[in-house]
Write the structure tokens for this entry.
Amino acid sequence: MSASAYYKPSEYQGRFHTSSSAAPASSAHRPSAGSGDVERTRSSAKLRLAMIAAVMMIGCFGLGALVHAFAGDGEVQAAGIPAVRDTVVVKPGDTLWSISEQRVSKGDDIRAYIVKLKKANGLSSSSIQAGQVLQLP
């Protein structure tokens, strides 16, 4: 019998030398049993974690989009009941500034009222005509 037939790594590790055809004495040269399984488990855990993070991010963005879509512009309106608003008829020489100036309290920003006035009337510019009826915000 050859010497490699009696080789037992656990008993003779480092003390028994065999020929080149025998199994290596050091466990560093041999692949450990199941090392591929450990790597596969780690990579699948990383993939699972990345997928969970991606789903959570998409969920957050979706929720934010829903909140933004239904948030409105801050005005409270009763369902089915049209809001009764005051109106003003534009006279010759009137401007959005002069109309807003008459309705804004002292110290309030006239520009902010003009923005609301334009929005309430669907105006894209500040141009108004005599005889035009404007709804007041």
